[in-house]
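Hi Y.,

Following your request, here is the sequence exactly as I used it, all 346 residues.
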Amino acid sequence: MNKSFQPQRRTVLKRIFQYSALGLFTLLSPFAGSLVQTTQALPNAKVINLAYQSSGDLVKSKKAVEPRFQALGVTVNWVGPFAAGPQLIAALNKGEVDIGNVGETPPIFDQAARPGIIPEVVYLTGRTPSDGSNQGIVVKANSPIKKVADLKGKKIAFQVGSNAQYLLAKALKEVGLKVSDIQVVALTPPQARDAFIQNKADAWVGSDPLLAAVEKDIPIRILRNAARINTLGGFYIGRRGFITQNPQLVRVFLEEAQKVGEQAEKNPSDYAKILVDEQKLDPSVAQKVASRRTYKLRRLTPAIIAEQQSVADFYFQERIIPVKIDVKQAILAPLVYKAILPDNIK
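Below is the corresponding structure, written out as tokens. Let me know if you'd prefer a different format.
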């Protein structure tokens, strides 16, 4: 046997054992219930590493979780800003981050990149979907490109492996095209915006707050927004080892994140003010971003999991990912969700 393969084999076997143990953990419900309670009373971690993206994070801005964790003797370490979901997930896999939130695409690409290995990145909760107006395929107002079908052969800038790719692929599919029919300009979201503004790309797939700022600054035309495409809203995700070993900490985080979301939904201008203060956005831009964003979390129902599987299947059918994946491999045991999900998430 090739010796260089042995560490990887041990890692795979270890993860399979951990995953199998979760199944056993679920079956032994009376014993497991007491074990969860014990674990909740005695969190293993003394530090929790929370990820945030360059688009901003309301939980971080409000310092919503720090008091609860301080009472438990746990230090909060915010890690970032990450340019987008793929970069955040890379940090999760390296053990640099414990919890973060991303769109529907990054976990799928991560799972497809590691076929046959139980994913370390797991789904915690869903996020309420938006109406799709906060994301779009954009061209300059004076561009000869008038509709999505005109994108054939054109340079399009976007973050590969993000929900921008899903919007683009689905929009192209609607008009009989594939991603292979366009020229991909693979950049981070800020770089993609800059390439578009500097005429280094014919079109850009952007989202708020970058999209709202560009809408104000230069004349553009949105060929297609994410309405009826961006239906999932994204997910909170976490590192499997951390989640299963520290259910109490995860529950505390999600409870406070949901409280922040409920408050922001009632008063989006509060979030707009944070965008003005922290990201130096124009107040009118910040107000637009706040009005187009959704805030609350939702439990992972069978329907949501099935819809995420349909996204993964679409990527495989379009030959965007190399293997067909089973999303449920990144779903935790029911008893673990019972331990980590607070009552205020429905």
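Residues 6-27 form the longest helix (22 residues).

Thanks again,
Q.
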